[in-house]
Amino acid sequence: QNxxxxxxxxxxxxxxxxxxxxxxxxxxxxxxxSVAPRSVASRRNVAARAGADRPLWSPGSQxxxxxxxxxxxxxxxxxxxxxxxxxxxxxxVQAELVHARWAMLGVAGILFTSIAAKNGAPxxxxxxxGKEAIKTSPAPLGSLIFTELLLFGWVETKRLYDLxxxxxxxxxxxxxxxxxxxxxxxxxxxxxxxxxxxxxxxxSFKEAKVKEIKNGRLAMLAFVGFIAQHHATHKSPIDNLVDxxxxxxxxxxxxxxxxxxxxxxx
Length: 266
Known about the structure:
Layout: H1 2-52, H2 86-118, H3 126-136, H4 141-164, H5 202-233, H6 237-246
Helix pairs in contact: 2-5
C-alpha cells in the first residue's frame, strides 16, 4: 500500500511539473510574439525617422539601409538594389561622376555651338560635327582613334589604380609630380586641378559636390532628350526651341509625329 501511494505521488508530481513547464513555455512564446512586432516596428520607425531627416527622391519613403545620406546627391534612390554591395557602390559612384562630367561638357558644347550657329558662326549641328571633323582633319580617322585609345587607356588605368588605392597615383611616376596628383578623394583630384583652392573649405567642398552631381544628372537626361529630339525632328535643340516659341500651341513634343504616335490624326 505504501508502495502504491509512493508511485501515485510520484506520477502526480511529474504531471504537475509538466503542466507548470507547459504554462511557462506558453507564456514565454506569447511574450516573444508580442515583443517581436514591437522590435520590428521600432526598427522601421527609426529608419523612417532617419529618412525624414534628409530629402528623398520620394517624400515619405524609406531609404535603403546602404544609402545613409553620406554620399553626395544621395536621395535614397536604388529600387533595383544595384549599389547594395559596398565594392559595387564604390565603383558606381565614380562611374556616375565621370559620366555626369562628360554629359555636362557635351550638353554645353551642343547648346553653345547651336546658339553660335544661329547667329552666323560656321559651326555644324552636333549630329553632323563628327562627319565634318573627319572631312577637315589633317590626321586620318584610324590614327585619331588609336591615339585616343592609348591616352584614354592610360588615364583610365591610373584612375582605376587610384580607386583601389586612394592617393597612390601621387608617387612621382608622372613627370616627378607627387602632391599635385594625390587628390583630395576618389573622383575629386584637387591639387593641380584646383588652382583656386575651392576644395580647401570642407563645407563649400561638400556643397559643390552635391551641386556637381545634380547638374550632371540633369545633363545626362538632357543628352538623352537631345538624341530623342533629333530622331523625332531631325533638328538641333535650339532650332526646336525657336520653333516652339514661334508657335507654342502647335509645335510641341506631341505634334512631331513620333513622340506620341497618331496624335496628329485627331
